[in-house]
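Two records follow; treat each independently.
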Amino acid sequence: MTQNDAAPLTGTPARDSLFIPRGSVTAEIKFYTPPSDNSKPFNYPYGTDPPEGQPRRNFGDVDIPVEIKDIRGREHLFNLDDNAFKALEIDSSTKTDFASEDSIKRNYYPEVEQLLVKNVPGAKRVLPFDYTVRPSNGDRPPVLRAHIDQNRKAASGRVHHFLPDEAEDLLKDRVRIINVWRPLNGPVRSSPLAFADSKTVGNDALIDVEHRYADRTGETLSLAHRNEQWYYWSGINNNERLLLQIFDSEKESRLPHSAFVDPRTPVNAPERESIEVRSLVFG
């Protein structure tokens, strides 16, 4: 994801900074457009510099206004198998210093494991393997481009990478990648997260993109616009969690997602801070 995908400051200055936008809204999301030379699309992610003379990515995007519906008040209508997302409210959260990698892995990872085992039907084992913190200082700004973090090839590669001795046996059973997303300074007032109902996303709209790191090449998916249905969860708070299903080896249930600029957000609203933890879920 590039700095050009970062959410800019925008909004309605007449509104109080504590105003929480709610309800359906029409807003722009960036969708995939192919490389001009029809070559395989690639991207050098945050923290990886492309070779001299090569662009950070060779494909483009187009801003398209879409209706984004609010799931607030009807969270129970959506599930991982059908829609590839699930909204949860939890009673408490482990004390974690989200500026500390050690604290996140020692305190928050176990909470994520327990949350997924409890709330994902069939889950027998959970392995958190990665996380992204998006602080308000702009080091990792919200991404304004419709994408899915891993495709099938990348998901299989994650299993082989983290559990090499067990990978072949594990891949014979159901394997999922599920992200647990939460704000750190909720309720969210700016750069909310939008997600497209998996049932409305056809495979023809998903494009494999090489994610080129210095030491390896992974693969993600970008989304070309069709007629998918977009949702968000207005004012998501610190005691709420969004489960985003990125991959499912058994069902074609996978979730394109993107931050978006809500035109109702006041210009002086606090910038969104959040963390997403990515986990392999077996069973």
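The next record belongs to a different protein.
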Amino acid sequence: AGVRHVKVWRVEETRANSPSKSRFMTEAKGPSTPQTSAPKSLLGRNCLLGPMLDTVFTCATAVGNDKAILCSLSGEVCLVDDGDKSQKLLRIGKLHFGVSCVSFSAAREELWIGGADGNI
């Protein structure tokens, strides 16, 4: 999250290498070298911000495997729903203070939001 920017990354369990990369790696190593698993980059997609295009997002917390809460400097509280892999951004509330931190307790099902001057 950031200035006019929200990106959702996914960790994929299995990911096939491109054929050209696999062939290049095999040719470079030679036939007798066993292939090892290399670090894989995360797949990421930008969220469409719509009317919140000029929003400065300050913090985020996961509230499930495919959902997160985002908060902004101007007090917007938003839900990012990635359940169908489309990164929907929904404004679910507006606070009277700018938000600087957010935390979620799954055990207590509580969302804690904090801002300047001790606002909670």
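Discussion point: Strands lie at 7-10, 43-46, 57-62, 67-72, 76-81, 88-94, 99-105, 110-115. How would you locate this feature using only the token line?
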